[in-house]
Every structure is written in structure tokens, then in C-alpha cells.
Amino acid sequence: MAVTSFNFDNTYAKDLEGFYAPGHADPAPAPKLLKLNTALAIELGLDPDQLNAAEIFSGNQPPEGATVIAQAYAGHQFGNFVPQLGDGRALLLGEVIDIHGQRRDIQLKGSGRTAFSRGGDGKAAVGPVLREYLMGEGMHALGIPTTRALAAVATGQPVFRETRLPGAVLTRVASSHIRVGTFQFFAARQAYDKVKKLADYSIARHYPELAKDPNPYLAFLNSVCDRQASLIAKWVHVGFIHGVMNTDNMAISGETIDYGPCAFMDRYSPSTVFSSIDRQGRYAFANQPVIARWNLARLAETLLPLIDNDDKVAIEKATNAVNNFTDLYDHYWLEGMRAKLGLKGEPQPGDLLLATGFLAAMDGQNIDYTLAFRSLAEKRSPSEAWAEAWQERNPDPALILQNNPLYILRNHRVEAALAAATEQNNLEPFETLLEVITQPFTERPGLEAYTQPAPLESEPYRTFCGT
Ligand code: AMP
Ligand code: MG
Question: Which of 24, 102, 153, 198 is the most exposed place for a label (fewest CB within 10 A)?
């Protein structure tokens, strides 16, 4: 039986004093619920009908049992280390044990200034909040580990960016918000007792099986590398570009986190960049595994004193762990590509060449990445020579349809939905798009328009930071 109250058990606040600052949300003058994720609410043990959602998820009414905090973290932003970032516009309400027994963070994003806000206003606008809502739910529907969206509430208060925009708060659910940057915060201050405490906490929360390992911290590093390798391969399989893979935006749980200027690639080109702030292409599509490994090397550095007392030994062990990321990634990537190409049975030596050959045939041809894979189910392919070798492997159309989405978050659809919500108070395009992309693999009549990329002549797509 669902209940109205949150089943809070706030271990981060309880066990990790010194890792956060207390906070409270700014009052929202006229909170209006834009969207509640009722299925997720039920998963969290809540009764959606009994929830005063607008008040709770605007931050006006902290639910009973919440311990409202802003978490400390540092991070490398576009390669430059910033020793203090932290939750500048987010507040952790606490942790809930869901109906499956899983511990989940409930966080408000855009609820006002905190001890970590620096010059920022701590707020968010309706557009970026709904973008993160769509992205999180879309990735989840694709089977990709991600933070989720529980609610979006308009505050009734404007935020000032380049223009005046309607303000909103996103309620985000994550298996935790511990980032590579959380480790960096304490390592940068040489607070190795705290790094150890955080590592022990992270192991207990996300990798409990490692607690008994003879070297739990090295095992932890290996496991984070493994989960990240699996995650980034999944991004690449669906053409997702995160856009801001800074170390503060990399969760040690292996979930996708912090959807800002992210997008799905339409026409295949490995150098695709969407974010307007990524002028060097650091976080380009094909660079994502390289950057993930770079970020994991930053995590490794923070763990060195825990891995071994002897510096040289610690560095060697940590370096091996990080270098192993490439093999893990290649493994996950090929495994996923085999499924996308409908290749069944035992892996064969020619599979890698089939996978890379398919992409090479697409490159620079203005071919839609998503549709190219999907049309393999009808035995259509970008190149005849390639198709011949592929057919010899007797590909399975059902496997292809299960592993290649038909409906993804097309950039022009996202923009249209956010514009309608922001400019006309019209949530219909958002609702429809959400419904379409939460069943990404199932073809449904009447939705043909949602399968198509934007017309070629439209401007190159750019997304902006969700600040
Ligand atoms: P992000 O771009 O969300 O990864 O955020 C990077 C850092 O900037 C984090 O420490 C955020 O808390 C902070 N930040 C981003 N936007 C704001 C804002 N409007 N007000 C205060 N801090 C912000
Ligand atoms: Mg961030």
C-alpha cells in the first residue's frame, strides 16, 4: 500500500559530516506542477494522489524526515581543476529506500542559492528543467543507467539569463550524487581521512561486494572503471553526446548525470559536438571514451594513498586499472554493436570488422545514425559490399529491432517542446514527446514524423548550458 510520506534514511547527512553544508529552498511564490512521474513516485513508495506535489517539489514544503543539504565537490571543468564547485543550485532532501529495497537520492535542482553558489542565482528555468526531464526518462527507457526525473514544478518566479525566463525546479532521483569530483574535493585538500571515509561509504552503498576484497580501494577503482566503460559504450550505441563530461558530472555509481547541453546525434559523424561551450570538441561524440578514461585517471589519483603505502606501487596499480578501461570499453562496445547488427551466437573474429565497416560506410554520408541501424531489420544497409559480408552471418531482424530504437529525442522535437512550454505555457508537445520516447523500440502507427531527423538545411544544432 502506497503512503504519502517519504521513507527517508539519510545516511549521507548522518555519516558524512563535513561533506556538505545545510541548506534550504527559496520560497516559490506560485508553484505549479508541470509534470509528476507517477510511476517513479509509486516505485519510491509514494501515493501520487496524496502528494502535495507542487508544494513539496518546489521546495516550499520539505517533506517530513528530509535533511536538506548541499553536497561539496570539486571538479575538472574542460580540463581545468576547480577546487570548489558543489551543489550551487541543488539540494539533497535525503535518501529513500524504494519498493525494490534500493537506496535513492531525492534532490531538488533550481531551488535557490546554497553555500556553494558563488556568483550564481541557484535557479533553473523551465526549458532546461524539462530538457533534463526528457533526457533522463528517455535514457532510462533505452535501458541506460541514469538519474531520473520525479517532478518538474514551475515556481511562478522569473529567472534572468540572456532574457527573462519562467523559473522551475526539477526533482531528480539518483542512486547517489557522489561524483569523481566529490573525491577530488577532499584529495585536493589532502584530507585523506575524508577520502577514505568517502570511499568506504561509496563501496558500502554501490559496491558492497568489494568490502571484503584484500585491496577494496583498488577494487573500487576497477569497478567504477567497469561501470563507466559499460555506460559510455551504451551512450555511443544510441548516439548520445553528454556535452559536459567534466569530472563533477561523472557519477561513481555509473549513472548518467547532469543533462545540460546534451543531445542525440542525428547524421553520423564521429566529431559531432552539440554544446555551444565546447569550442575545442573536447566532448565530441567519438572522444567520450577517451575523456571517460581521463576522468577515471583523476579519480585514481585521489585514491593513491589508499591503494598502497608505497607511492610507486600505488601508481602502478592505479595506472593498470585506468589503462584497463580501454579493453573494458572495447569489449562492451563490440558486445552492443553485435546486438545492434543482429549477430547472434558466439562472437566471431570478423564481427569487429563488420561493426567498424558499418560505421565507416556511414561516415560523411549524411546518414541518420538511428535510422541506419533500424533499417537493418529490413535488410537495408548503407553499403552493398558491407551487406554481403553481413548477410553471411545470418543476422536476426528481431534482435535488431530490440537493440535499435526507432524513436529517440530528436533535437528539433526537444526544442519545439521546450519552446511551447516556455513561450506558450503549452505542455502538450512535451507530453507527447515524452510518451513517444518512453517506448523507443515499439513501432506505433501515426508516429512516423517522430522518427525523422530535422531537415538538412536547418541550422547546425547547438544546445546551451542548463543554467
Ligand atoms: P553544471 O553545469 O550543472 O555541471 O554545474 C557546474 C557547477 O556550477 C556546479 O557547482 C553548479 O552547482 C554550479 N552552478 C551552475 N548553475 C548555477 C546557478 N544558476 N547558480 C549557482 N550555481 C550554479
Ligand atoms: Mg554538474
Answer: 102
